[in-house]
Write a structure and sequence with these properties.
519 residues, mainly alpha, 73% helix, 0% strand, disordered N terminus, disordered C terminus
Length: 519
Amino acid sequence: MAENANELARSVSWKEGLFIALGVPLLILPSLCDVSSIIWGMCVLVWTVSVLQGFVQNLAYGEMVTAFPKATGLPGCAQAVFTKGNKDGIDKGKLIGAFSAWCYWFAWCPVVAIFTMMIGDYLMQMFSLDISGWGVVGLYMAVGIAIVSLMFVLGSRGLEGGAKVGMILAIASIVPIVIILVGALATGMFDFSVITDNFYRAEWSWSVQDIVLVLGCFGLAQWSACAWETAAIYGPEYKNPAKDVPKALFVCGIICLVMYFFVSTTVYGSLGQEGITAAGTATLAPIAEFAFGEIGSYIALFFLIVAMILIIQTGFLGSARTLHSMAGERNLPKWFSKVNKNDMPTNAMMFVVFFNLALVFIIKFSGEILAAETTTMTLLTASALGYCIANGIALAAYVVTHTSDRFKNLERPFKAPRGWHRVIAVMVCIQFGVWLPCLMYWSYYLSGGVIAIVLGLVILAFFIPLWFFVQSKNAADDLQENCIPETTESNSRSKNRGLCPHFHQTFFKCNDFFLIVYK
């Protein structure tokens, strides 16, 4: 597609795109404990294969984002593909694209709440806090309020992602993890036989249930292990997409492959299943204390918490901008499109603040006060459901670009291997037919309930009636804008008749739409 004034400026090098995505290895931390609790040492294999899955998907994403330079990320590409531009009635394709954007938003927005609760977990471990009930709820809410307040203040002033912030994020995310885990290797805490002797549970029988649980682990693991797609999302802004996209993708993918193998192997080999279970989500805390002593562990974990705050900032700003973009595309109320003097979406940011505080309160209140089986994993699993759906829709959009005559002449600055759409068609089936249902069962088996499933599906399904409401409101606003009287006399006649001069013409244009909305 030829460049023009309406396209994004091509000002990003492949190295800058790489740095934007290098916060991804930190995303493995919330799910290390729960994945290993199901499959023990086999978690090393799951994490490694999940990153390889990312190579398969991200080649398609790299091609698609450079073919649609005006689209806003993967959901924007999905909407560009499925929207047919119907002038009469509701464009159901637009709903598919909009729902994909909402699912993708829900996949990233809870990163704020998830890592806020992880910071609380690490504080509990570091200072051996002996509190329970409302004391725990108060601690986690205080941490949440402090973090989201900081995010809102910084974000309102225009502090947002970019090459320099991406570089800081990459260094701050990877370095503390590497230092802590190298400490485990240097002090002899790591023992590879712990993995080989406990590769799967003693009662493992390769039954249907066991296989489903392994597949459910893959469904959850992709939430973090495939997230380096962010290197491809900025494809239209690369200086030379045909060369920069594959460079950024492959280098980032290789780094993630090494990091995910290194982290999962070292953590499991250092702690074993009993140690991981005892540490919970704060799996690096006992390793840091063993390797560096009490004072040294405080320093190492402090920088790890700083890295978590930076990944929170990425999720906070990214999810707020997604809401703002959806409002600009008329898929959410106009309220979300408001920006301040620094062009930051303050209303969307405010929504993200209260949404994540509500999530923290719900998880901790139900777990501590109501004694329900709710943990950080409850929220992560619900978020992973959204990622499965968003991934499936985006991958399906890629297949459509290769099978529909509408896109046969579409220029593709970067091309995946020939026939790749057939591979991706299989991945679409896997997303909806394997990962999604198996993840649901995995969640039910792990928690003994359906809280995570219900939470995820309710939040995702809420968008559908909201979208229809927004479309009806948009149609009403368009109707009012079209009913502008040409003269005072015509305006007077319009009032006397209760109609505007252009009512009949506009009514027939919108009639089919209202029938569908209010049927």
